[in-house]
Design brief:
Layout (H helix, E strand, L loop, with lengths): L2 E3 L12 E5 L6 E6 L3 H18 L4 H17 L1 H12 L3 H26 L3 E3 L7 E9 L2 E5 L7 H12 L3 E5 L5 H13 L7 E3 L4 H8 L5 E5 L2 H13 L4 E4 L4 E5 L5 H13 L9 E7 L3 H13 L19 H16 L3 E4 L13 E4 L6 H4 L6 E7 L2 H8 L4 E2 L1 E5 L3 H9 L5 E4 L16 E2 L2 E2 L4 H7 L1 E9 L15 H15 L4 H5 L4
Parallel strand pairs: 1-3, 6-7, 6-9, 7-8, 9-10, 11-12, 11-17, 12-15, 14-15, 17-18
Antiparallel strand pairs: 2-3, 4-5, 5-21, 10-20, 13-14, 16-19
This protein binds NADPH dihydro-nicotinamide-adenine-dinucleotide phosphate.
Length: 517
């Protein structure tokens, strides 16, 4: 690829700091982009703010119509996008296509079709102030900042961006320093659509660029990343009174009940655990298998895992690609060492590959909660399995975590699956499937506990991209003076007292009305 981007008109930097993008599968330098200084980051936000002033007053139908041009361009140039994601992330092209571009395009389609309804002013019936009419209006916030991680460098920032744009905001994205070229491609495509260039700003850089974005006067931030970074970012948002959504780490448990379909469960564990080499916030991070099916499930998971083809995803026929950088490999190794030292068995995998930044898909058996692998986020291709003697035990262990993003339940009894789902502390629980909830454009996605707060996707997220404004008006001709206005008097006070008793005492209506006299 070999790109050197100056990002002119979009935070061009004269500083010598460069964001470098390397292909994790080959080590090849794919491109370099100048990192924005603080002033440059602020200038991108300022230009976005000016562009938003015109965008935000367009009728919503017109905004949606114009944004469909972005969809057309994404569909036309999908293979360029897939190539850059696949190279920069080291993931198979099919994953880049389906999990990143298709989900983004679908989200854009859903919002463009439904936003006029979702954001239409909403009448609210008032139970006390019956002489008044109230309505909630949804007004754009202004500039929405988006700070995003490297594991899904397209769908995460673009999914947030399309919601913000449909709602009438401008966006400024700070992509991960590890995967800047994917957003550079998205920006290039945006600029080709004829939509206002400054409406879609990008600030390339490191953590400081993200900090500069938070301090630039944005009206909202959507942050996706690690828990520790999220705490720092939330504190910075607090200091600047910037409302924020926090999409943080996950430790998704999978409960395999005694009555699960073992074949489907095994395949789901292997897919959910090793997709994107396990570098997914909602990947299967721990399995609780009922003792009656444990051995059968384990041996099937082992066999299926051994069949996975690991390597450079550029060619066809690769299932599991590269690990983003060496530190992620070290984290996986540490978890495995700790688990083995406490009695876990490596069923398959367990080590890095000699031919590059790859790690063998690993299955661990005999795991328990004394091991870090069952408690801390792995974010790599390691699936630890613990045998449990009851579903109660599985639920207790699933909830024994500081994280609560996704959770999975496998059982042939869907009603039981729903009962278990209701007892799991997670933002999203999926029955007999894995990961798919992220692709449900209509449904909210987000975490509880230290997995974060706020939601993306669905109606609530779109409304959250707006300021809610109540407009209160009269249903009847207004008198020249309301009874609660000045001047106060003992008479009006006694009347208010009687009114309170009549309204809020218990008893039949006639009896209560008598209190007015
Ligand atoms: P990080 O938290 O390291 O980085 C996330 C983003 O924050 C990057 O753009 C990073 O920039 C930026 N950043 C770092 N420091 C600061 C700062 N002080 N102020 C503002 N921005 C800052 O996460 P990773 O990129 O390593 O992503 C992996 C994590 O993301 C995992 O924990 C995973 O679970 C989580 N995640 C959560 C998802 C969810 O939906 N809940 C989805 C996907 C991932 P830079 O890269 O330049 O340091």
């Amino acid at each position: 690829m070999g790109l050197l981007l100056h990002a002119e008109g979009n935070g061009a930097s004269t500083s010598q700091r460069l964001v470098k993008s390397f292909a994790p599968a080959t080590g090849e330098l794919l491109g370099e982009i100048h990192a924005a200084t603080r002033d440059e980051a602020h200038a991108v936000v300022e230009r976005a703010r000016r562009a938003q002033a015109a965008w935000g007053v367009l009728p919503i139908e017109e905004r949606c119509e114009r944004l469909l041009r972005l969809r057309d361009a994404l569909v036309d140039r999908v293979e360029e996008i897939v190539e850059v994601i696949s190279k920069e992330c080291g993931k198979p092209r099919g994953e880049a296509l389906t999990q990143e571009v298709t989900v983004t395009v679908d989200l854009l389609t859903y919002y463009c079709k439904n936003a006029p309804r979702i954001l239409a002013p909403r009448d609210i019936g008032l139970h006390l102030l019956k002489h008044k009419a109230s309505a909630v209006h949804y007004a754009p916030r202004g500039v929405v900042g988006i700070i995003s991680p490297w594991n899904f460098p397209f769908v995460i920032p673009m999914g947030d961006a399309v919601a913000a744009l449909v709602a009438g905001n401008a966006v400024v994205i700070k992509p991960s320093e590890v995967t800047p070229l994917t957003i550079a491609k998205a920006k290039e495509i945006w600029d080709s659509t004829g939509l206002p260039e400054d409406l879609f700003g990008v600030v390339y850089g490191f953590g400081e660029a993200g900090q500069a974005l938070i301090e630039s006067g944005i009206q909202k931030l959507v942050f996706t990343g690690a828990v520790d970074t999220g705490k720092r970012v939330a504190a910075a948002c607090g200091a600047n009174l910037v409302p924020c959504v926090m999409e943080l780490g996950g430790k998704a448990p999978l409960i395999a009940c005694a009555d699960c379909d073992v074949e489907r469960t095994a395949r789901a564990i292997v897919f959910g655990g090793f997709v994107n080499a396990g570098q997914v916030c909602i990947s299967v991070e721990r399995v609780y298998a009922h003792e009656t099916i444990h051995d059968k499930l384990l041996s099937r998971v082992r066999d299926l895992t051994k069949e996975l083809r690991v390597g450079n995803p550029e060619g066809d026929g690769v299932d599991v690609g590269a690990i983003i950088f060496p530190k992620q490999i070290e984290i996986a190794e540490k978890h495995i060492q700790d688990a083995v030292s406490k009695g876990a068995e490596i069923v398959t995998g367990g080590k890095r590959r000699p031919d590059g930044q790859f790690f063998e898909p690993t299955v661990l058996a005999n795991c328990n909660h004394s091991m870090t692998v069952m408690k801390q986020e792995i974010f790599g291709p390691v699936v630890p399995i613990q045998k449990v003697s009851s579903e109660e035990e599985a639920i207790r262990l699933a909830n024994d975590s500081h994280l609560g993003l996704n959770a999975y339940v496998f059982t042939k009894d869907r009603a039981k699956g729903k009962r278990i789902a209701a007892r799991i502390d997670a933002g999203n629980v999926v029955i007999n499937d894995v990961l798919l909830n992220y692709a449900a454009a209509e449904a909210p996605f987000g975490g509880v506990k230290q997995s974060g707060y706020g939601r993306i996707h669905g109606e609530d997220a779109l409304r959250e991209m707006c300021e809610t404004r109540q407009v209160l008006s009269s249903r009847v001709p207004e008198p020249s003076k309301d009874p609660f206005w000045f001047p106060y008097s003992g008479k009006s006070y006694r009347w208010q007292l009687r009114a309170l008793r009549a309204l809020f005492s218990r008893g039949p209506l006639l009896e209560r009305l008598g209190k007015l006299l």
